[in-house]
Amino acid sequence: PRILILGAPGAGKGTQSAKITEEFDVNHITTGDALRANKDMDISDMDTEYDTPREYMDQGELVPDEVVNAIVDEALNQADGFVLDGYPRNLEQAKELEDMTDLDVALYLDVSEEELIHRLTGRRMDPETGDIYHVEYNPPEDPEVEERLEQRDDDTEETVKERLRVFRENTEPVIEYYEDEGVLERVEGEQAPDEVWEDVKTTIEDAA
Ligand code: AP5
Ligand code: ZN
């Protein structure tokens, strides 16, 4: 299937995408991870304000469309089924995506702002595997893993606030856009991860 997963920062897109990838044997295409792996790539030949993605990301701003569109276009060309996470984040990107591929379903993980802040400030990443944890909700069992966990650069309180503002301003219209298109499926994201997964899985099965 061709799945889009939408949601605010911290809604659980990465967490659920990992399960989707395993269950449905699709590629996980994530602009956030792709940009983090290329934070210092030189984008100065494009008509951008900053020379690398880092400046945008560490402030919680969107990286210019031109950069992100190219990443997604290339990844889609190499994928049959996919779960697309972190894109589109504004209406221009949504229009761009329309020219690149069709979608079977657009999932929206609905979570309150208070819970989002709690999730983001407590999130930890395993730099070796990329696995996502939370100090309270989902701590690792292996003490060796626990020791090497890192916080994401943009999970500071100030940047989190700006990311949420950018989401409301730029990405909420994208959710309305898919709602109008009739492909949006709202999932209650403020349940335990396994309960969210049950709903996500059934929704995909019903749509595919
Ligand atoms: P990106 O990496 O996409 O970040 P984001 O959208 O802010 O989303 P997150 O990764 O923070 O959250 P998530 O929904 O994946 O939640 P997770 O599963 O980790 O983008 C980062 C930056 O890159 C952007 O700010 C921008 O600069 C740039 N960028 C990316 N895409 C772009 C684009 N298209 N255009 C322009 N710029 C772009 O979960 C969060 C935490 O909650 C974890 O600790 C997890 O364990 C926990 N958790 C998850 N589910 C639950 C649950 N059900 N209950 C309790 N805890 C849970
Ligand atoms: Zn993510």
TrEMBL record:
Pathway(s) it belongs to: Purine metabolism; AMP biosynthesis via salvage pathway; AMP from ADP: step 1/1
UniProt cross-references to Pfam families, sorted A to Z: ADK (PF00406)
One GO BP: AMP salvage
A cellular component annotation (GO) from this entry: cytoplasm
UniProt binding sites for AMP: T31, R36, E61, L62, V63, G86, Y87, P88, R89, Q93, R152, R163
Classification via SUPFAM superfamilies: Microbial and mitochondrial ADK, insert 'zinc finger' domain, P-loop containing nucleoside triphosphate hydrolases
Residue positions binding ATP: G10, A11, G12, K13, G14, T15, R123, I132, Y133, Q191
Entry keywords, A to Z: ATP-binding, Cytoplasm, Kinase, Nucleotide biosynthesis, Nucleotide-binding, Transferase
Matching InterPro entries: Adenyl_kin_sub (IPR006259), Adenylat/UMP-CMP_kin (IPR000850), Adenylat_kinase_CS (IPR033690), ADK_active_lid_dom_sf (IPR036193), P-loop_NTPase (IPR027417)
GO molecular function, one term: AMP kinase activity
EC number: 2.7.4.3
Subunit structure: Monomer.
Family (UniProt): Belongs to the adenylate kinase family.
Description of its domains: Consists of three domains, a large central CORE domain and two small peripheral domains, NMPbind and LID, which undergo movements during catalysis. The LID domain closes over the site of phosphoryl transfer upon ATP binding. Assembling and dissambling the active center during each catalytic cycle provides an effective means to prevent ATP hydrolysis.
The name this protein goes by in its record: Adenylate kinase
Organism name: Natronorubrum aibiense
